[in-house]
């Protein structure tokens, strides 16, 4: 466009180039600029529905629970108490012991996912991406299937499989404080292994054959090709999978509640933040719930998740190199 | 693709508009519609009854309510249950929204007490027929000082031990009466090796506390004396009688099925009804289900007596009550119904329709089910009490009931010693309960 205007300008020389031409086109300039600056109504129209729903169902409840965490009931009315609830949660040994126990268990729960789900997911993806594999669609579907199951079904089936009464294992894995949490984490890994697998697989099949062929020509073994050529291309996905797992694990609740109940026994060995929050907020059996202390726990969960995600963004995502293929 | 399906959008829109034009009649509104017609015309009043006992729907509709309607044709009561785990929240919402039924089934103790204090439940202290209930029965639905009662006690459950008579006959065992005999019996079954002597698991934690500790405990802390003693602060959990109860519970560990640490309540129920275990520490609510599932004869014995004790105590725990919504439009009719629930006729109907749930009034009731009648007979021989953690003592942090679940399960798992369990329960109480503070 600017090119056309330049030529239509009598005063312009053909060698005048762009700088000269823009200065030399006073009437065309404002028109172009106003067109560029006109309010992008269509963007607002497209964003509005999602923004509205997101605000009403996500942002507002989140902010309101932050607000609620700074209130406490006094004589039947909720009054503003500042950060008292947080001080109480972190200093009252009754609450803080339970809270740190839940945080620690939650980190173990995540560590098991991180250390088991990623390598196995990667292995399965690499096997699926093997060019000579037949029946790939069947394997892919079967491996992904557990992800689509209800957590209640997964909990129920695994409880039966590893039950000393009905199943194949003699040790009461879910009944001992030393094994309960890791067992539950592995049940969850079994269910969700399909997600990292499918994400890794998508990256692996998008790697152009030229790269692997070139590596083969250079004399690299399949092992070297995988680690030197394919793995660096997978690294950004490893990061994304890890952070998504972190967020999901720190919010986890359903499997443990289904299998162990809200008291997350034995001796709170499988108590994670979700179950701790549930008991605090809703109460349990004869224990009355407290919405304000519950909101405080929820806020702490939010802050821990936020910290993890920020660590990922600044510590990992900015450093890892991603390649355009 | 989008063009071919383009006609769908306007079509769907048109369908939606058409649907919106119609006068919607929600089928669930039928009862309400009938209600308003009735009150307007024939003078018949319809009362709605809120409950969490959705298992009992057929019994209420086919047996109990028809008997009431026969005597009071002008009052129609509709039983409207909600799922048990949703009941409290749903009822709260309905009560604050003013849409709750006229009659409210009451949970025991603090949940119902809170509804009364918030003005949702009407006081019923002067209800005719209330004198049929003693203080223990009323305690679950009375203010702390006992001056006001707000629900009619409807049913209680009794703890004891169910046993498989075929196994007992096979091994030549008679039901134990003392604790010493109880352990001999358990040893004998264990020595035979074909059956689990005691069928219970600790995975769900509550069985260990409810069917374990609260089942045998009253014999140690002398029922009401001990329960009131804890509330008054004259007794404490580290007293010897409580340590003895914890010690006896811990000794069960040797007799439980393999892998009991991860055995759940349904697992234990199935093990027993499949005939793989001899004795089931039970609550009377099991009776109906077990009668249906087990193909062998069952019988029951009360908690065995500890050394040198003559009086037996049973946990006869208040479980279900019924009260009146303070905002009901028909208080007179609701009271008429509540008065009927205090009668001998109701007690008889209820006990026989729901074997294992026992009416708490002092009317003499005969239950046809022999197993249920066996439980009921203990009331004449033994002193009744309720679970010691339910009244007042579970109001603070840490929550005593939750603690007892945890500690009882750990006692059986062998991860805590009886002395330590008692000390921890006492520490928990002392943290917040003033009468227990030194």
From TrEMBL, chain A:
Entry membrane topology: Multi-pass membrane protein
Major localisation: membrane
Alphabetized UniProt keyword annotations: Cell membrane, Membrane, Transmembrane, Transmembrane helix, Transport
Residue ranges crossing the lipid bilayer per the database entry: 43-63, 107-130, 142-169, 189-208, 229-248, 293-315
GO biological process assignments: transmembrane transport
Start-end of Low complexity biased regions: 1-22
Subcellular location: Cell membrane
SUPFAM superfamilies recorded: MetI-like (SSF161098)
GO cellular component, one term: plasma membrane
Domain ABC transmembrane type-1: 103-314
Region (Disordered): 1-32
Family: Belongs to the binding-protein-dependent transport system permease family.
Protein name: Sugar ABC transporter permease
Organism encoding this protein: Jiangella asiatica
The organism's taxonomic lineage, starting at the top: Bacteria, Bacillati, Actinomycetota, Actinomycetes, Jiangellales
TrEMBL record, chain B:
Record keyword Ribosomal protein present: no
Superkingdom field: Bacteria
Pfam families: SBP_bac_1
A GO biological-process term: transmembrane transport
Subcellular location: Cell envelope
GO cellular component, one term: cell envelope
SUPFAM superfamilies reported in the protein's UniProt record: Periplasmic binding protein-like II (SSF53850)
Keyword Signal: yes
Regions annotated as coiled coil: none
Swiss-Prot/TrEMBL keywords: Signal, Transport
Function: Part of a binding-protein-dependent transport system for a sugar.
Homology family: Belongs to the bacterial solute-binding protein 1 family.
Record-given protein name: Probable sugar-binding periplasmic protein
């Amino acid at each position: 466009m600017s090119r056309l205007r330049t030529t239509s300008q009598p005063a312009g020389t053909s060698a005048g180039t762009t700088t000269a031409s823009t200065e030399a086109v006073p009437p065309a300039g404002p028109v172009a600029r106003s067109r560029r600056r006109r309010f992008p109504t269509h963007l607002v129209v497209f964003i509005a529905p999602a923004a509205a729903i997101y605000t009403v169902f996500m942002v507002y409840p989140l902010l309101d629970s932050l607000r609620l965490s700074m209130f406490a009931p006094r004589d039947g009315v909720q009054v503003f108490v500042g950060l008292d609830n947080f001080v109480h949660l972190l200093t009252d040994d009754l609450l803080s012991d339970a809270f740190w126990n839940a945080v620690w268990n939650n980190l173990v729960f995540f560590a098991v996912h991180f250390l088991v789900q990623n390598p196995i997911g990667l292995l399965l993806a690499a096997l699926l991406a093997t060019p000579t594999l037949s029946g790939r669609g069947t394997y892919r579907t079967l491996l992904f299937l557990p992800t689509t199951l209800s957590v209640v079904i997964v909990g129920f089936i695994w409880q039966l499989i590893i039950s000393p009464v009905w199943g194949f294992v003699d040790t009461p894995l879910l009944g001992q404080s030393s094994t309960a949490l890791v067992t539950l984490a592995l049940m969850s890994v079994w269910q969700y292994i399909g997600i990292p697998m499918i994400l890794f697989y998508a990256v692996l099949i998008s790697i152009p054959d030229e790269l692997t062929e070139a590596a083969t020509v250079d004399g690299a073994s399949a092992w070297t090709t995988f680690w030197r050529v394919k793995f660096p291309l997978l690294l950004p996905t490893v990061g994304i999978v890890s952070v998504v797992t972190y967020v999901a694990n720190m919010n986890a609740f359903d499997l443990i509640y289904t299998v162990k109940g809200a008291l997350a026994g034995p001796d709170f060995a499988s108590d994670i933040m979700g179950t701790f929050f549930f008991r605090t907020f809703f109460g349990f059996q004869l224990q009355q719930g407290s919405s304000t202390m519950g909101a405080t726990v929820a806020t702490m969960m939010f802050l821990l998740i936020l910290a993890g995600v920020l660590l990922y963004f600044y510590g990992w995502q900015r450093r890892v190199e991603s390649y355009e293929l | 693709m989008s063009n071919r399906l383009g006609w769908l959008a306007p079509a769907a829109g048109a369908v939606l508009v058409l649907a919106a034009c119609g006068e919607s009649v929600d089928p669930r509104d039928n009862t309400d519609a009938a209600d308003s017609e009735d009150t307007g015309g024939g003078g018949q009043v319809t009362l709605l009854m809120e409950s969490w006992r959705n298992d009992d729907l057929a019994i209420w509709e086919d047996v109990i309510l028809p008997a009431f309607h026969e005597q009071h044709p002008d009052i129609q009561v509709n039983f409207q249950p909600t799922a048990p785990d949703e009941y409290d929240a749903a009822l709260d919402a309905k009560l604050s929204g003013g849409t709750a039924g006229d009659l409210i089934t009451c949970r025991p103790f603090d949940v119902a007490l809170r509804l009364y204090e918030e003005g949702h439940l009407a006081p019923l202290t002067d209800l005719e027929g209330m004198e049929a209930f003693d203080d223990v029965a009323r305690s679950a639905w009375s203010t702390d000082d006992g001056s006001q009662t707000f629900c009619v006690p409807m049913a209680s459950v009794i703890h004891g031990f169910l046993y498989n008579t075929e196994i007992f006959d096979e091994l030549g065992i008679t039901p134990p009466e003392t604790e010493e005999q109880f352990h001999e019996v358990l040893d004998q079954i264990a020595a035979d090796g074909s059956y689990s002597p005691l069928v219970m698991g600790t995975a769900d934690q509550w069985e260990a506390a409810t069917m374990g500790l609260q089942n045998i405990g009253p014999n140690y802390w002398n029922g009401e004396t001990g329960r009131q003693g804890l509330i008054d602060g004259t007794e404490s959990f580290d007293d010897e009688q409580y340590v003895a109860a914890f010690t006896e519970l811990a000794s069960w560990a040797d007799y439980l099925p393999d892998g009991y640490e991860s055995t759940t309540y349904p697992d234990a129920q199935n093990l027993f009804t499949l005939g793989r275990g001899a004795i089931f520490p039970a609550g009377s609510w099991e009776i109906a289900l077990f009668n249906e599932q087990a193909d062998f004869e069952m019988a029951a014995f009360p908690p065995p007596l500890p050394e040198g004790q003559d009086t037996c105590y049973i946990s006869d725990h208040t479980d279900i009550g019924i009260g009146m919504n303070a905002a009901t439009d028909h208080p007179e009719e609701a009271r008429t119904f509540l008065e009927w629930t205090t009668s001998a006729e109701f007690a008889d109907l209820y006990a026989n329709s729901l074997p294992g749930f026992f009416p708490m009034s002092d009317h003499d009731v005969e239950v046809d089910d022999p197993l249920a009648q066996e439980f009921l007979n203990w009331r004449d021989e033994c002193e009744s009490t309720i679970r010691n953690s339910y009244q007042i003592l579970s109001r603070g942090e840490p929550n005593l009931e939750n603690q007892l679940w945890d500690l009882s399960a750990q006692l059986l798992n062998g991860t805590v010693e009886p002395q330590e369990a008692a000390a921890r329960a006492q520490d928990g109480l002392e943290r917040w309960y003033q009468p227990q503070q030194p």
